[in-house]
Amino acid sequence: MDTGAIVHIDYDLYNVGSGDLIETTREDIAKEHELFDENRTYEPMITVIGDGRLIGGFEAHLAEAETETEYTFDIEPTDAYGERDSSLVETISQNVLMRSVSDPNMLGIGAPVEIGGRNGVLQMLRAGRARIDYNHPLAGTTLRYTYTIVKVVEDRSERVATLLQMNTGRSDFEVEFEADDVTITLPDSIAYDQNWAYAKFSLVRALREHLEVGVVVFREVHTPRVAAEEEE
Fold this sequence. Notes:
With about 230 residues, the chain is of the alpha+beta class.
């Protein structure tokens, strides 16, 4: 698969050591392993080949993959989330922990916590002390992926729309090309998105890297509001 290709991937991710399913994009697999979440939508993951969004071992395998072919392979920790690092397990006072969490009543062993901007897991809480593990939850784990590239996005306008959705989570943009220049009409509500200013510059970089576009125009359209008719 070429670097820069935008693809849709169905995958199942397992812990090789325990055999447990960690994540899946497929509803039937989630139900089979009793991990179905009715609050999420099960659909293929969208990514850009070689963009660095995925762990190294998965990126490397995708580079040699073909569409509509199912692959199963293992990734050692060094090419996934790394080996466990004992220096990332720290003990702090219970007072520091309590000041750092918004709701102390939600604390429990194994609960995620954020201390000084670092995310970790509470391992121990007793005698006024707390032990926090800042390793990634999958550090030291050998992973097994079963995946299929179910679609490669070929159409140029669809590629732009897909990058927009990946970076904003929205699909209500309009995309028009004139030669290599692209105009993107923004939805009115984007003005209320505090992340848009950052996402816009990230999008321009992605469009230039992966689509080799020329001028990028973000177009705002503000239509007049029509007053509701008075009830008779």
